[in-house]
Design goal:
The protein is of the alpha/beta class. It has two domains: about 60 residues; about 270 residues, Rossmann fold, CATH 3.40.50.150. It is built from 13 helices and eleven strands. The strands form two sheets. Strands 4, 5, 6, 7, 8, 9, 10 and 11 form an eight-stranded mixed sheet that branches. The chain has a three-stranded antiparallel sheet with strand order 1-3-2. Helix 12 packs antiparallel against helix 13. It is globular and about 65 Å long. The termini are far apart. About 40% of the residues are buried. The protein binds S-adenosylmethionine. The site of S-adenosylmethionine has 21 residues, from strand 5. S-adenosylmethionine (SAM) binds next to strand 5.
Length: about 375
């Protein structure tokens, strides 16, 4: 039996859960540790429930002392790995824990940490949410686009993080169209049996006219030049049925009146930092792009661009995913340099950068 007794009473609030989850990683299955805290950490039990769904009774949660000054809880490790791999979210969680994508190659593996595109570099470090507004803005987008019982096409699904949000909502069909073959493989593993993933160009999907109720694409138009942006939106407009919805989640420049020389500076700084020719538009320009292809903008939501802020990373990747990301950053020097440079660029321009989600409808 392990005698490890983490006392988190003196720690700052944000450090408590990471410390406890690190402690949980240490003992072998069947062992336990005793946690001391100055209040009842009941809500921590819920996090264990999410991350260790196969552990009955909140991973063996036994109160040894219940206040009023101190709470001591024996937490027993009932399982080592996440089981129930048959749901998309559990598959992703398992990948975050192990750092493996079902043993397969991650996209962008042919480039060194110095040269990798920012999103694949983050993926290499264990990040799975690769869009500027995080998973929260994705959820808003999915709610507005109403994917339940819909024929859904996802353009550029990346590693399948949004597919894992869409499938539990019960779409009639799901088709992903992804340009990168390794990424397409990753999405296939997530949708396994509940949809189809094609390797292809979002501007030329090969899908029939008027065959989709919802087309969604996140963090993929920003990286296209003007012509390609128009080609993709035109393709979406062709593929959508009347009353169908196009949902986008992209990087925006703010305010709409931002001077051209400042947007040019920011685009160049982003290109240097993330090694992608990022060309964000203002919210008004994104709306005009969609309207120019006959789509009617129904909903617009913006949130700060906080992709690499610690709080957002925890919200997007969960405590364990965030810890994994932090550990990988600590041990991978070149990757750390790149990520810090990306973060510095986002911070420097944070007043002019935002994440935008827009849902536009094809008129009936
Ligand atoms: C920044 S990642 C975003 C991935 C995912 N949508 C997300 O938000 O996590 C950009 C993705 O767009 C894909 N992509 C870029 N241009 C594309 C195109 N023309 N057709 C299909 N996929 C494309 C890339 O391969 C990559 O998976």
């Amino acid at each position: 039996m392990s005698t490890y007794e983490p006392d988190v009473r003196q720690l700052r609030k944000p450090d408590k859960h990471p410390t406890i989850f690190t402690a949980y990683a240490a003992p072998a299955v069947g062992e336990s540790f005793v946690l001391a805290n100055n209040h009842d950490p009941r809500h921590l039990g819920a996090e264990f429930d999410i991350d260790y769904p196969d552990s009955p009774d909140i991973s063996g949660w036994e109160y040894l002392e219940q206040g009023p000054q101190a709470w001591r809880i024996r937490i027993s490790k009932l399982s080592a790995v996440l089981k129930s791999p048959d749901t998309p979210k559990n598959l992703l969680r398992q990948e975050m824990m192990t750092g493996r994508q079902g043993g397969a190659q991650l996209p962008g593996a042919d480039r060194s940490d110095d040269a990798a595109q920012g999103h694949w570099l983050l993926a290499r470090l264990g990040k799975r949410v690769l869009r500027p507004g995080g998973v929260e803005l994705t959820r808003t987008l999915l709610l507005r686009a109403d994917v339940s019982r819909a024929d859904v096409v996802e353009l550029a699904p990346g590693l399948g993080r949004t597919a894992a949000e869409i499938l539990p909502k019960g779409p009639r069909t799901y088709i992903g169209v992804e340009g990168d073959p390794d990424a397409a493989d990753a999405v296939r593993r997530v949708v396994a049996g509940h949809g189809e993933v094609r390797v292809g160009d979002a501007a030329d999907t090969g899908l029939p006219d008027a065959s989709a109720d919802v087309v969604i694409g996140e963090a993929m138009l920003t990286m296209q030049g003007d012509l390609a942006k128009h080609a993709i939106v035109s393709e979406v407009s062709r593929v959508l049925r009347p009353n169908g919805r196009y949902a986008i989640h992209e990087l925006a420049l703010t305010p709409d009146t931002i001077p051209e020389e400042i947007s040019t500076d920011i685009r160049q700084a982003l290109a240097r930092a993330i090694k992608v020719n990022a060309r964000p538009l203002t919210v008004a320009e994104w709306s005009q792009l969609l309207a120019g292809h006959g789509l009617v903008v129904d909903h617009v939501a913006t949130v700060p661009m906080a992709l690499l802020q610690p709080r957002r990373i925890i919200a997007d990747e969960g405590v364990i995913g965030a810890l994994r990301f932090a550990r990988n950053l600590l041990v991978q020097r070149d990757a750390r340099k790149r990520v810090l440079a990306m973060r510095a660029t986002f911070r420097k321009h944070r007043e002019q950068l935002a994440a935008v989600a827009i849902v536009a409808t094809k008129p009936g």
